[in-house]
């Protein structure tokens, strides 16, 4: 069976019916309530189990990178972290919300249930360079995130500001309740970072 190629009709051959009524139909929407809301001043209660921001149980995470492999947007980067001077045994996922589509495939594939999500969904900034760091983070543990969500109840991101010291590699999360959450980023990828090489002592002249 042969398929005939489709023909595209020229616009000049399409008969258009003039209408004097249609241009005025839009006026009815002037008297209806807007569908959109003014974020962050207004909020909508999310549906139960709404796919919002991620949470991460740092103790359960085994650094398998299943989340990074399944992510269709390539929004996850495995990150080696040092807490209180001690290197975590496995890398943890860092999520870029500039790329994330909130499909939550990463949560579904996590073998230990370390990666989860919470209903909070509001993250706004004024566009300043330092504020954009909020969109790229290693998620907070679920208990701390839920504690902040229950305290404020406005479904907003739990962190007001993130500082990254390029020299010391220290990251500081300034939480909404005034607390701070600190750690160091010491490398990326699945392989552990190499320890810093010790400076060689100069040979003494004999």
From TrEMBL:
Look up keyword Nucleotidyltransferase and say if it applies.
no
Q: Quote the InterPro entries the UniProt record gives.
A: 4Fe4S_Fe-S-bd, 4Fe4S_Fe_S_CS, NADH_quinone_OxRdtase_chainI
Superkingdom in the source lineage = Archaea
Q: Name one GO cellular component term.
A: membrane
UniProt domain 4Fe-4S ferredoxin-type: residue ranges: 52-81, 91-120
Keywords assigned by UniProt, alphabetized: 4Fe-4S, Cell membrane, Iron, Iron-sulfur, Membrane, Metal-binding, NAD, Quinone, Repeat, Translocase, Ubiquinone
The record's listing under PROSITE patterns reads: 4FE4S_FER_1, 4FE4S_FER_2
Q: Which GO terms describe its molecular function?
A: 4 iron, 4 sulfur cluster binding; metal ion binding; oxidoreductase activity, acting on NAD(P)H; quinone binding
Q: Which PANTHER family match?
A: NADH DEHYDROGENASE UBIQUINONE IRON-SULFUR PROTEIN 8, MITOCHONDRIAL, NADH-QUINONE OXIDOREDUCTASE SUBUNIT I 2
Give the NCBIfam families listed for this entry: PRK05888.2-5 (NF004543)
Protein's recorded name: 206aa long hypothetical NADH-plastoquinone oxidoreductase subunit
The uppermost taxa in this organism's lineage are: Archaea, Methanobacteriati, Methanobacteriota, Thermococci, Thermococcales
